[in-house]
Amino acid sequence: MQKFIKIHPNDNVAVALTPLVTGDTYEIDGTPITLVENIPQGHKFSLCPIAKEAQIIKYGNLIGLAKEAIPCGSWVHTHNIKTSLGDLLTYSYDKNVSPLPASEDRFFAGYRRPDGKVGIRNEIWIIPTVGCVNNTATAIERQAQQFVQGTIEGIHAFPHPYGCSQMGDDQENTRRILADLINHPNAGGVLVLGLGCENSNIDVLKSYIGTYDPNRVRFLVSQECEDEIEEALHILEELASYVGSFRREPINCSELVIGMKCGGSDGLSGITANPVVGAFSDLLISKGGSTILTEVPEMFGAETQLMNRCETEELFDKTVSLINDFKEYFKRHDQTIYENPSPGNKKGGISTLEDKSLGCTQKSGSAPVRDVLSYGDRVSTRGLNLLSAPGNDLVASTALAAAGAHIVLFTTGRGTPFACPVPTVKISTNSALYEKKKNWIDFNCGTMVDGTSLTELSEALFDLVLETASGKQVKSEAAGFHDMAIFKQGVTL
Q1: pLDDT confidence of residue 339
Q2: Which of 34, 128, 364, 475 could link 25 by a cystine bridge, Cβ 3.0 to 4.6 Å?
Q3: Is residue 40 a part of any domain in this protein?
């Protein structure tokens, strides 16, 4: 078993792949390194003496500055490293684009909708326009399970606390995300449940939904009927008749859109799971498919790598705005831009935001950036897309689903049971998590430590994605978890 890894030839730290003990000596690049401290799994140790204020290099990039002199063989973490990042930066476009060669077609069994879109689930969704009818929506969901039969794979409500007493961008965000979900092809049918007096009422929301099929999308205003639950069940029975008519058929994987997200990261995230997802992304894109990378605050410190992969200078400029607009958002609220990583990240071995971001962006693989999306936008360009959304797991994953992701790949070193509106594949960075939480984790990348290759794991993940797209339930689906969250930035009336 490999005990440590030096990720890049220029690195002056290595990462422990298993707990290492004081006094152990390892030969690295022909030089014996004796550990002067215990090194937890996923944490870093110095490969040479590092002077105070000197750069600490990992992934071949700067991840921070030494707070103090660090002897060779020492544990390098938050106690002796600090971020090197500043606030708003000026960037220059240094184009470094390498188009991926095409690869052979692959297929999955999905649902072709009348408008030409493709779904990987044939569900009925209940979308409340406002938090006031959340309990009504969940009551309807419970009573409607009688209609889950044949090719209907689920009936799910998506409660949220918004839709009224909102202003400006918040109100716009709510309307756009709800409309995106209403239009999502994983839903064969949708009941839009309103109250009647809310800001984002059904009449207002219709302009965001656009053209819709009345066989697929139905509306109910609770204040306008005597018994909204009874009326909703009648509508759902009619929707079930329509949705039950769909059958799976072979569909080219070029029509898949896959979201990529990480949460509860650890020191192995950028070494195992995230690179595997990046290789998967390249593989799907080589077959004509699309992926979406989000979590803008977790691009800080690695953003230039994405900027230089933009196909055009226009996309470079949009990526600069993507980064700086989010930094301005922090500043408007008098918050520290680099108040990251989280306590769980630090416990797992991530020391600075640069450390986290350089690991996080491994999920993007090597493909060119083809488009940059604002929050609430939907994917319209095949290939790698960047999406504006925060790092919060549920908000970002919901944004990925709203952008058109059929599936979200979620890498984690700590574990989490949550799900978003679309199948959420949990991918562990380490085998201990996989063995402990098999009720959460769908795929284990921890075997890279034992010698499983990146290519082998990315191809296995690709197979799992096609199986999931063809109907195989992921762990969170089997548990009955379907959640959503909308990005809130401003005032509540």
Answers
A1: 62
A2: 34
A3: yes
